[in-house]
Amino acid sequence: MSTVMDEIPLSGPDITAHEIDLVTQVLRSGRLAMGPMQERFEELVARRTGCDHAVSCSSGTAALHMALLAFGVGPGDEVIIPTFCFVAVANAVLHAGAIPVFVDICPKTLNMDPVKVEAAITGKTKAVIAVENFGCMTYMNTYRAICDRHEIVMIEDACEALGGIHGGRAAGSFGHASVLGFYPNKQITTGEGGMFVTNNARIAEIVRSLRNQGRGTGSGATSGHPGSSQGLRAWMSFERRGFNYRLSEIQAAVGVAQMERLDDILERRQGVAEWYIERFMAHPDLILPSVDSETNMSWFVFVVRLSDQYGCIERDRVLDGMHRHEVGAAAYFPCCHLMPHFAHHTGGGPGKYPISESMAQRTIALPFFTGLNARDADFAAATLELMVSRENLSRS
Predict the structure, then answer these.
(1) Which residues have a Cβ under 8 Å from the Cβ of 194 and sit 6 or more positions away?
(2) How far apart are CA 124 and CA 215, in angstroms?
(3) Are residues 166 and 140 in contact, defined by beta-carbon separation less than 8 angstroms?
């Protein structure tokens, strides 16, 4: 009998009969866009983030793009962002016609260094996008204080932090507006999808219009079935240049089911994270994620770093070895400032943001998802330990 294991994936969605039932309800209803599931999904996310308004959309990137436009960010404006983050953040700034201003990160939290954020502010700075890398919420209050002091907008990128709590406040509640993403590797998923949340009613209305081709948000304008002649006139009234960034009722149904199960999902992901932490706590060559005492972490991924005696070459050999043993693992994230299409924004090549570059060269994301079983987690951990040991032997 074969002893070869199936590949252990890096991530995977958690879909149950509840999601399937709600999707089936939508399909039977005949209402596939802009209906009651969308409204329910938005209500659940608004409640969880502690915000007054939630606007669903097609992706977290779309939510970021609309957030920038809604606050008037455009050509010539500067937006401060970390270079160590998912590239969607920098792409959204370019989509708005603005200039990304990269800053380096804190080596402990992997979030932007607040001192460097404040130093990067100029007369052209219009916004700061505060990214909660890997779900870490440290410095969110500090970023908000900096932005308020300089009278600039803070957009909280909580795409990796849904359900987290920091200092008694929910992820998504720190910015003037915040965004969430629901790709299949996130805490909850809608397949593809995102959400914009805020306490600012005027900004929320602008985003509702932007996601729906720039339609007005009066009677009938947000309905997929205008019905009356008055509703039809509103439906065909366009107030601004907009986008088709809507979320379907099918996707919203999955989101409703996921939100109704969120506490259970977070608890199970917490269990996987705690298992990894206990396993690797004493390992001399692995640096574990940092969680401060004020945070109840919502785990998006589990990323370890090789110690600073290693570099990109050694890390990549470790990853190659894990892949040969059918273990899904990956590097997280490459630095944005080193990507060709951002080069003219950086004012320099390698060495410009040394902490981010060092972190990016040594990260390893391990298999991490709600349904990861003990056997596969143990195999993944043992394989990582074996590959690091081999690197040590080759260096001796």
Answers:
(1) 56, 57, 58, 59, 60, 61, 62, 63, 159, 179, 180, 181, 182, 247
(2) 30
(3) yes
Would you say 167 and 294 are in contact if contact means Cβ atoms under 8 Å apart?
Answer: yes
> Could you tell me where the beta strands, DSSP code E, fall in 132-239?
153-157, 165-166, 169-170, 177-181, 194-198
CA 100 to chain centre: 18
The structural domains of the chain, with segments of one domain joined by +, span 17-260, 262-395
Q: What pLDDT digit, counting tens, does each position of 339-390 carry?
A: 998 887 766 689 999 999 999 999 999 999 999 999 999 999 999 999 999 9
pTM above 0.90, yes or no: yes
CATH topology of domain 17-260: Aspartate Aminotransferase; domain 2 (3.40.640)
Query: Residue 256: helix, strand or coil by DSSP?
Result: helix
- Closest by CA to 173, choosing from 159, 192, 194, 156, is 156
